[in-house]
Design goal:
The chain is mostly beta strands. It is built from 1 helix and 10 strands; from the N terminus they run βββββαβββββ. It has a single domain, classed as Distorted Sandwich (Deoxyuridine 5'-Triphosphate Nucleotidohydrolase, Chain A). The strands form 3 sheets. A 4-stranded antiparallel beta sheet has the order 1-4-8-6. Strands 2-10-5-7 form a 4-stranded antiparallel beta sheet. It is globular.
Amino acid sequence: MQLKVKKLREDAKLPTKGHEGDAGIDFYCAEETKLYPRKRTEVLTGIAIQIPEGCVGFVWDKSSISFGKGLKTMGGVIDAGYRGEIKFCFYNTNDEEIVFEKGQKVAQIIIQKFENCDIVEGELEDSIRGENGFGSTGHK
């Protein structure tokens, strides 16, 4: 499988993989961006991609950014038909401002095949779990 990539800005940094065989494709910040405390912020990459038909892109945190800096990506699904700029929405859980430098690795996308389905209204089959939701498997 190939992922076609287009720079929307001459100085945009192309996505990379940290190691051969890694699932995540790393994306970089196109400009210095301030992430204010307890606020959502859009982070631009200057990159557009063409996800193959039958696949979807899932946006995931970089562990060093989520765990190390307390930032969380939001949203997270990129459909194959989208051709606009890849943008990430971050929520800063901190009480202080965090700054992404231009060219800094900020998030990753995993490209995954999916099964397309038709949506059909009707009765649902019974299951062992039934309607038991949050906490239904118990707590330690």
